[in-house]
Amino acid sequence: MQIISTAAHADTANYLAALAFAERRAFHSYFDQHVIEDERGAYTAIDEGDYDALPMTLIDRVVHTVPGRMSDEY
Predict the structure, then answer these.
(1) Which residues contact 18 (CB under 8 A, 6 or more apart)?
(2) 12-26: per-residue pLDDT in tens?
(3) Where along the chain do its domains lie?
(4) What is the DSSP string of 3-56?
(5) CA torsion sign, 41 to 47 to 48 to 53?
């Protein structure tokens, strides 16, 4: 029998929610969407276009990247 702790389940749910948000936003963006983990272990999705260049403090915390799906080419 496998037991999943409440904290682990909440972390997984938070990660999946951030990932789903990043995937939805990627359809409407030229920029990559990154899922990052903060100091508390929570996950957040950010748009690379919101920053000039990602600072090293954010790059070190990226756990998943969804490429932007908009294109100028027809």
Answers:
(1) 35, 43, 44, 45
(2) 889 999 999 999 999
(3) 6-66
(4) ---HHHHHHHHHHHHHHHHHHHHHTT-SS-EEEEE-TTS-EEEEEGGGSSS--H
(5) negative
Length of the chain: 74
Q: What is the pLDDT of residues 54-67, one digit of tens each?
A: 889 889 999 999 99
Compute how many other C-beta atoms are within 10 angstroms of the C-beta atom of residue 2: 3
User: What is the distance between the alpha carbons of residues 34 and 66, in angstroms, rounded to a whole number?
Assistant: 6
Distance of CA 43 to the CA centre of its chain: 7
Q: Is the dihedral of CA 62, 67, 68, 73 positive or negative?
A: positive
The two structure tokens encoding residue 5: 């702790």
Check if the beta carbon of residue 31 is closer than 8 Å to that of residue 74: no
